[in-house]
Amino acid sequence: MTESSLPSAVDGAVDGTSPPPPKAPLSAWTWREIAYLLSNFPLDVLAFVVLVVWLALGIGLSVTVIGLPLLASGLVACRKYGKAERARARALLGVEVEEPSPLRARETGFFPWLWACVKDPVAWRHALFAFIRLPWAVLTFALTLVSLFVAWPALPWLARWLSNVDRAMVRGLLSPSDELERRIAELETDRMTVTDTAAADLRRIERDLHDGAQARLVALAMGLGLAKEKLLEDPDAAAAMVDEAHGEVKLALQELRDLARGIHPAILTDRGLGPALTSLAGRCTVPATTSVDLAERPAPAIEGIAYFTVSELLQNISKHSAARRASVEVWRVKDRLLIQVEDDGRGGARLDGGSGMAGLAERLGSVDGLFVLDSPVGGPTRVTAELPWRARTGGS
Fold it and tell me: Do residues 223 and 245 touch, judged by C-beta distance below 8 A?
């Protein structure tokens, strides 16, 4: 391998592929592996000494007020040590591993933080990495150094074999322990999305109540008060005012029904997705057809997300697509609920186009759903959404 081919090879390894096969004369890849193996010894000696002293002091003083804080502080340092070792492995061995989920205490305050540190599995695995590496570092340092002067022809293959063991150690002890850790990090992000969405919905409901039904009811109360005052002196005027108030009551009731439908439509609760989506399609300004093939109903929360996803997509079609027709299809595949909304409009929709698509994608992602947008310029636009099925409980 020539020097000019090194960047692409390194990039390939960082992306998760294997480094190129070793060969003589020594390639740039082999020199990086040699540098890693030789630098292991001084760094691992230092890490081992610090680790042993820290553990001896932390455990020995654990019966005092400074023992556990010392132990916790050392575990925080172990996390930083692991981060530095991941960076070194990335630079010299081309090993790319994900960062573990950050340390989180369930409550704020010193003692919750202390307890979270002491039982942090990530930090303890990093400490184990530092502990078991010293004998391996001594062996690899000696073999590599001797091979540099005595067994030069075999050095590329020896360096590859030794560094592959280091790669396995890094992946095994410095990467997230399992899928659960990665899942925790995802769920933290999803929880924030759900919280933000719920807060936005509450603000919308509050605004709709304040600007709509509440304002109308205040005006109604004032009108009825005036009618009461005129009831004896001007019965005809009072009757006209009562008649006007009656109209205001009807409008207020309609606004409250619309608001309730925006929170959770009664037809969805009573009859399920099929009739609810048919009702939605009937209110769309673009002629829309629906096809719902479900032998049973999913969980109420999934039904609600599916309903409001289709509702927003149909609103987008009405406002932005210039389409002549649209279609909504819903079906189930194993434990997933699939939704496809299509229109023959002008296309060109994007997730970052300000049409609410990004918000829909975030909402679906927060419940392990998927959102795929296919909208070439000139159309058609096809949105495919996928949600977990999660069967209904409680006999509903």
Answer: yes
Spell out a b/e string for 158-173, using b for 16 or more CB atoms within 10 Å of the CB, else e.
bbbebbeebbebbeeb
Lookup result for tokens 């079609």: 317
| pLDDT of amino acid 152 | 79
Neighbours of 185 (CB within 10 A): 16
Tell the CATH topology of 186-263. Answer: 1.20.5
Could you report the per-residue pLDDT of 270-319, keeping only the tens digit for each? 888 899 899 888 888 899 999 999 989 888 888 888 888 898 898 888 88
Longest distance between any two alpha carbons in the chain, whole Å: 119
Query: Domain 268-388: which topology?
Result: Heat Shock Protein 90 (3.30.565)
Instruction: Compute φ and ψ for 325, nearest 5 degrees.
Output: -155, 160
* Neighbour order of strands in the sheet with 336-343: 288-293, 326-333, 336-343, 381-388, 370-374
Indicate the helix (H) or strand (E) that contains 339. Answer: strand 336-343
pTM, full prediction: 0.46
Decide if 110 contacts 90 (C-beta within 8 A). no
Tokens of 161: 């074999």
**What is the pairing mode between strands 370-374 and 336-343?**
unpaired
Q: What is the pLDDT of residues 373-386, one digit of tens each?
A: 898 988 899 999 99
